[in-house]
Amino acid sequence: MKLILPAEIAIEIEPHLPEDTVLVPVDSDGNLDGDATDAEVYYSWFYLKPTTLHRVLDAAPSLRWHHAPNAGVNHILTPKYLERDLILTNGAGVHAIPIAEFVITYILAYAKHLPKLYHLQAEHNWQRGLPIQELLDKTLLIIGAGGIGQEIAIRAKAFGMRIFGSSRHPKPLPNFDKLVGINEWKELLPEANFIVIATPLTQETKGIIDLETLRLFRPDAYLINIARGAIVDESALTKALQEGWIAGAALDTVFTEPLPPESPLWSLPNVFITPHCSGNSPRVKERSLALFLDNLNRYLQGQPLRNVVDKTAGY
């Protein structure tokens, strides 16, 4: 069987493949080192460009299964891609732990005034009396109670937080005090101290955090986005932050990445911006390779694959 693999990891993954496997490495621009016309499997890598994806599709007419390491696949589901009858699996779960840890970091940084304390240290200023909060009994709303949302809930519950969540198919989950459907989470906003966006970007979720929704937030609410920037109406969020409708926001993702230098978000004192790094960890690569190899074994054995994407739903 022939596999198309990212050039970055082809050598690393080759010893773990069946002996009769033929590899066709592909670089980040879509240049293939070999004939891919009879390749059945494509394992893409992070930061996949549409042009690279389309070059691979053109070169591999026999492709049957595509595995992407990302949890979000909105950048993959192009019209050209959807013309092909491919099985698509994703990397849901491989980033969940580092992202969940980062969410707790954002929450603690806000509650404990860490930016201010770092600033005071730099000034050699022993200032006391900051309105430092504790997390006990604070309410966290997680929009998207999937794998990442559940890992966030595990860690937040250890701080004694009350945890609400939303899901397409709500059912009781450990660590969640309340779960509602995807169209019901707005009713919970008046109770939420912290709101985390952990849902995939789809046609249904694009721009759901808009002016009308932000008006429902508590004045002391803190928004955290570790999903996709397009889920938030950025101009509406900027207005809400500037006018004090909400207390602040931590943004690991924005509509245009990198965030343009002229964006007002850079200089707002109540915004914490990180460069889409919350999922970073040396162990992500390890988990990603393990997931692909497990799925490859399932594919060869004719067994159901893990993390099959519903291309209609977008995740």
UniProtKB/TrEMBL annotation:
The keyword NAD applies. Pfam families: 2-Hacid_dh (PF00389), 2-Hacid_dh_C (PF02826). InterPro entries: D-isomer_2_OHA_DH_cat_dom, D-isomer_DH_CS, D-isomer_DH_NAD-bd, NAD(P)-bd_dom_sf. One of its GO terms (molecular function) is NAD binding. Residues 105-278 form the D-isomer specific 2-hydroxyacid dehydrogenase NAD-binding domain. The keyword NAD applies. Residues 54-309 form the D-isomer specific 2-hydroxyacid dehydrogenase catalytic domain. Keywords: NAD, Oxidoreductase. Belongs to the D-isomer specific 2-hydroxyacid dehydrogenase family. This is Hydroxyacid dehydrogenase.
